[in-house]
Amino acid sequence: MHVYLIDGSSYIYRAFYAMREMTTSTGKPTNAVYILTRMLFKLLKDKAPRYIAFVLDPKGPTHRHEQYQAYKATRQRMPEALRAQFPYILEVVEALGIPILQMEKEEADDIIATLARRFKDQAQVVIISGDKDLMQLVDDKVMMWDTLKDQVYDRAGVQARFKVPPEYIADLLAIMGDSSDNIPGIPGIGEKGAVDLITRLGHLDQIIASADSLASEKQKKAIKENVELARLSYALASLDRDAAFEVGLSDLALKDRDEERLAAVFQELEFKALLAELGKAALPAAPVHQGRIEHCSDPEIAGEHGFYIVQGIGSAVAGRDVTRVCLDEQAYLAPLGRKGATLVLHDAKQALVLAEQQGLRIQADVFDTLLAAYCIDAASSGTRLEDLARSYLGRSIPTLKDLLGSGRGAREPSDLGQEERGSFLAAHAEVLRPLKDKLTEHMARVKVEHIYHEIEMPLTFVLADMEALGVLVDAAVLSGISGEIAQTTAELERKIYDLSGRSFNINSPQQLSKVLFEDLGLPVIKKTKTGVSTDGSVLEALASKHEVPALILEYRMLSKLKNTYVDTLPAMIDPATGRVHTRFNQAVTATGRISSSDPNLQNIPIRTTIGRRIREAFVAPPGYQLVSADYSQIELRILAHITKDKTLTESFRQEVDIHARTASEVFGLPLEEVTSDMRRQAKVINFGIIYGMGAHRLSGELGIPRATAQRYIENYLAKYPGVRRYMDEITKSASELGFVTTMLGRRRSIPEINSANFNEKEGARRIAINTPIQGSAADIIKMAMVKIQARLKGMQSRMVLQVHDELVF
User: Fold this and answer.
1) Which of 179, 415, 439, 493 is 20 to 30 Å apart from 156, CA to CA?
2) Segment 432-453, tens digit of pLDDT
């Protein structure tokens, strides 16, 4: 018979750090719950224990804190990403039928020590942990099992690891100290010296008594001057095997597991594989209707309702008892024009643009579930209504793809019957109102209500106006540019063929690779799984060695502009308005920035001649002019504000050229001696720091040795100590909390910040450094757009485009 005593705290932390982080579709961290559940499933399956306990530390201080206030004082606060998972962990442990033991002031180690002594004469005790403190309990009837490493420790195993038997582990820790628990030990004597003293003299008291006989003056002095500290350390390291609590063997009996309770947790945390192992479907497949469905041409509404709209299908308004479905495309937007109506929509902007185009004045009070979810965590990818219904309500609703199908068998909306449309629309409308309640509660919990109410929701009306208005494009200008590019690319082709000695398909990576690396004999820079790389970074590296790579880069740039903008934009001009109507994506980027698509009007290059020519095709109607305004160095100003760096702040206050100033600081020259090339390099460094750029990336950007790039970064951080402090503090904070926020409180989760994978962790560190800066800039321009739109009310001037830090009127 065996008794299994799980060191719960150790188990939970090791599960948290065991693998790359996982989150639900709404960004809720789940890695610790998942790994711990897997570990417990395996333990219960492989060992089928009759007696087991999951032992936890108390919520408050322990007896050791009363002995020594600094006990465990060096331990970091529990990461927020782990803290959020704790209730689910306890839920899983309880649902598996495993008794949980947690007692006031009693440390988990002492509870385990007492239970091991109490039951080892009745059963083989197995302590499940990797904690060295618990190894002092190992004897012939007590073993320790590190399940994460699948390593079992008996007396010989402990001796092999620490070079002393289990009964001397407390003495070892008392002498050498233990940084994880902040046990001081004897200053100046490390593990090797402690093992030697124990091997020769025995327990701590014997070592203290024999101090005068020691040959080493250093050891003798250290022991005699720190007797009380050593005894305190021994008291802190020794486990209490006689803690006073009433727990019998029957209290540790494994209970029947509650599969419904487990399924509820797994469903909420989106553990599909674990649900399958329970024999449960992930979620009900069919839509669930709360009330009956009525079909009407213009649905009446009163009070607060869900309102779901799909262009080409119709709309549905969900009341408490009945969901009214409207398939009349001329009337289905009507509820938006009802004064006093309260509507809950998902992606309200889509409906607002349609209403604007139909000339319908919006009078309803609107709540947008998409924006609320985005405010809760900008990094979450699961912001479709179907994802939110699953994550927050545990309900499954079909997607449009489910309804229409995909591939050859896909249907058009016009192919759908009335009942199919009605059922689909009702299923979506009915989740909106309960979803609003859940999201509102969650926004309050993470303190982002002001982001939603003061920035995002007002902005969606601004963006809807801009989308509906569009921007005027002169197709004749683009046609002229297209002809010029075609002529230039044809000339480039001829040059490339002449220099290469033959013609080939420039757009074929395989043919280009043969020309560059076999025919021309250029060095291979990078390899991929499919062969030798010919991407942009490779061509840039080769451009200084041969003319062909440089010409190909120019050819690619012109071809891309021609295909993406010059030839495509004319076809996207709405014949009714003569304008291009881009879509502004408000809830897509993890930084909070607005993006643009169909077409993307934020990526037209401005630094090249051809890019500026393309921009000239965007025009104002007769009697108007285009006016563009952007922020000056907004991200660097925010960096100065957040870091409070004296030099950086003074540079802006004195209106000094910030890039020239950085060049002066990094290269150690007076400001007047800074050259234009130095300023260019400093500009890369300034923005590289914002994006958390390391020496490897900087060396590539500037074409300099890595050691030189590292020296530039070190010089920068030495001259701007506030920036270094900020980078250290924000990385530490992100590691502890699992997220970062902008100046206004917009939240972005970064679960990978504690990843065991170096590349993942470094990527997360860069995100942590950059997000508060870039995200704050995004917040500021959004606030400006809302305020400017209010100022333009009643005027003929209109805002037509937003390009990151720039607004076009």
Assistant:
1) 179
2) 999 999 999 989 988 999 999 9
**Cβ burial, residue 223 (10 Å; 0-12/13-18/19+):** buried
Instruction: Write the DSSP assignment of 365-392 as a string of letters.
Output: EEEEHHHHHHHH-TT-S--SHHHHIIII
Are the C-beta atoms of residues 601 and 801 closer than 8 Å to each other? yes
Tokens 């934020």 belong to 602
- Let me know: does 433 contact 306? Beta carbons within 8 Å: yes
Interval 657-696: pLDDT, tens: 999 998 998 888 898 899 988 998 899 888 888 887 888 8
State the Cα angle at 780 between 779 and 786, rounded to 5°. 90
Count other C-beta atoms under 10 Å from residue 427's C-beta: 27
What residues have CB less than 8 Å from 301, skipping those under 6 apart? Answer: 307, 317, 319, 324, 335, 338, 341, 343
Three-state SS at 439: helix
Q: Is 84 helix (H, G, I), strand (E, B) or coil?
A: coil
Q: Match 């090249």 to its residue by tokens.
A: 608
Residue type, 6: I
Distance CA 16, CA 76 (A): 15
CA distance 461 to 457: 7
H or E element, residue 292? strand 292-295
pLDDT at residue 184 greater than cutoff 50: yes
Tokens for 170, please give them.
């407390």
Strand 2-7, strand 124-128: pairing: parallel
Contact 721, 645 (CB under 8 A): yes
Structure confidence at residue 653 (pLDDT):
93
Contacts of 749 (CB under 8 A, 6+ apart): 23, 27, 29, 81, 377, 379, 380, 738, 739
Chain length of the chain? 809
**Interacting residues of 60 by C-beta distance below 8 A, sequence separation 6+:** 104, 105
Question: Rounded to an integer, what distance in angstroms lies between the CA atom of residue 305 and that of residue 323?
Answer: 9
**From CA 130, how far away is CA 146, in angstroms rounded?**
5
Residue 722 in tokens: 């506030």
CA angle 549, 555, 557 (to 5 degrees): 105
301: phi then psi, degrees, rounded to nearest 5: -135, 150
How much is the pTM?
Answer: 0.70
The strand pairing partners of 139, in sequence order, are 142
Task: Compute φ and ψ for 324, nearest 5 degrees.
Answer: -95, 125
SS3 332: coil
- Residue range 140-159: average pLDDT? 89
* Residue type at position 214: L
Provide the Cα torsion 133, 137, 139, 145; round to 10°.
Answer: -60
- The Cα–Cα gap between 789 and 108 comes to 60
3-state secondary structure at position 669? coil
The CA-atom distances, in angstroms, between 534 and each of 427, 528, 538, 569 are 49, 10, 6, 29
| Beta pairing partners, 143 | 126
186 with 196: CB under 8 angstroms? no
Kindly give, in sequence order, each residue whose CB lies less than 8 Å from that of residue 53, ignoring residues fewer than 6 positions away.
Answer: 3, 4, 5, 6, 98, 99, 100, 101, 115, 252
